[in-house]
């Protein structure tokens, strides 16, 4: 599957019960076979979203929603599929195999860690170790399970039969899908308030509903929006829930990651300060330089007065060693840190006039 870039998420259960951590999914009770896995994760099949749950011998369920991890720093690469694999491994002793559709890599999530495997033989080693630890003692009884052929098992033996079964059985089931959704903050009084630079601009939203409802829905229209006009306090805690999302009919909000946004609203006060032009280098011996004159000489800066004070603002320096005669240069204002901002009317470009006088010898 990795070689063919077929994205997949396969959970091998350990000793702990998975039911309280996972949601949804269709019961299958079919023997694991390569054609069956291909049918399930075929992107044209309705059931490819979500994870397959296995007890090592049989596929118990597919289309299962796993909890998302919030420890995104543990994921060097990968999106939601990898986040879901890590999330489940943080909650129980299952082994989760992820095949990346985008990169064709295989990763293993186990005991709250995820790592990308270097070779197929690494996967075999992981599976052998897991098998020895969790399934060895079950093997005899598993044999008996293997011999019991349910109707679903029989269907699963042929992938065409499986797809036919799926198209009848699947539409009415509840499925879960996760999307990266942009966050919009509106009605912030922009001249006096700003949000800190680090505000999250998107979150992962999981919706639930029938396959039918998902089919007629365009996820690119989803948006999370917060109206900040009524938010008085400066340290904000905003919950992402169904009130902030434009949910389409037939789909329900299930969870968000992160579920709470911690934001800081900064209050900016306009302050008029003089512009100062620093100089570097030494002027030629036959010249004498007069004070450098910026234009404008005074500028309005918006200052987060709770965090900082300001008595002047600097431009980029003028290099006197390059000056031969009176010149005019454009210099940028240097505003560092997130406690200062330029007012909307002000330009960051300052016209600097460098006056020099020739020394009479
Ligand atoms: N919570 C979840 N539980 C189970 N499966 C999920 C969950 N969230 C997303 N998925 C699966 O992951 C797929 C999307 O993966 P996405 O491309 O966002 O992640 P990725 O880690 O970058 O994977 P890939 O490398 O394969 O692209 C979905 O189509 C769905 O099948």
TrEMBL record:
Keywords: ATP-binding, Nucleotide-binding, Nucleotidyltransferase, Transferase
Residues spanning the membrane: none
Keyword Nucleotide-binding attached: yes
Keyword Transferase appears in the UniProt entry: yes
Record organism: Fodinibius salicampi
Protein name per the record: DNA integrity scanning protein DisA nucleotide-binding domain protein
Cited InterPro entries: DisA, DNA_integrity_DisA_N_sf, DNA_integrity_scan_DisA_N
DAC domain residues: 1-120
PANTHER family noted in UniProt: DIADENYLATE CYCLASE (PTHR34185)
Top-level taxon in the UniProt lineage: Bacteria
Reactions catalysed, as given in the entry: 2 ATP = 3',3'-c-di-AMP + 2 diphosphate
């Amino acid at each position: 599957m990795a070689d063919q870039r077929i994205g997949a998420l396969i959970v091998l259960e350990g000793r702990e019960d998975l039911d309280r951590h996972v949601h949804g999914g269709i019961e299958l009770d079919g023997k694991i076979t390569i054609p069956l896995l291909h049918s399930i994760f075929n992107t044209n099949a309705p059931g490819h979203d979500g994870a397959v749950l296995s007890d090592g011998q049989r596929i118990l369920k597919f289309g299962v929603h796993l909890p998302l991890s919030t420890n995104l720093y543990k994921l060097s690469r990968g999106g939601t599929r990898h986040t879901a694999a890590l999330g489940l491994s943080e909650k129980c002793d299952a082994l989760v195999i992820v095949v990346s559709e985008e990169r064709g890599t295989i990763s293993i999530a186990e005991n709250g860690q995820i790592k990308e495997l270097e070779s197929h033989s690494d996967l075999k080693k992981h599976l052998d170790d897991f098998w020895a630890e969790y399934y060895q003692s079950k093997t005899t009884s598993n044999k008996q399970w293997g011999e019991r052929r349910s109707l679903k098992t029989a269907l699963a033996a042929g992938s065409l039969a499986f797809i036919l079964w799926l198209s009848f059985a699947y539409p009415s089931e509840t499925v879960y899908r996760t999307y990266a959704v942009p966050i919009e903050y509106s009605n912030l009084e922009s001249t006096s308030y700003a949000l800190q630079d680090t505000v999250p601009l998107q979150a992962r939203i999981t919706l639930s509903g029938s396959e039918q409802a998902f089919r007629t829905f365009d996820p690119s229209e989803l948006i999370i929006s917060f109206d900040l006009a009524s938010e008085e306090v400066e340290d904000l805690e905003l919950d992402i829930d169904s009130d902030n999302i434009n949910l389409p009919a037939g789909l329900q909000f299930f969870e968000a990651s992160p579920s709470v946004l911690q934001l800081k609203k900064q209050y900016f006060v306009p302050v008029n300060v003089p512009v100062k032009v620093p100089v570097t280098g030494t002027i030629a011996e036959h010249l004498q330089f007069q004070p450098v004159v910026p234009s404008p000489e005074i500028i309005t800066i918006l200052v987060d007065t709770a965090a900082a004070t300001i008595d002047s603002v600097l431009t980029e320096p003028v290099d006197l060693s390059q000056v031969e005669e009176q010149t005019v240069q454009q210099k940028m204002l240097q505003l560092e840190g997130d406690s200062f901002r330029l007012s909307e009317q002000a330009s960051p470009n300052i016209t600097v006039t460098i006056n020099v006088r020739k020394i009479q010898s």
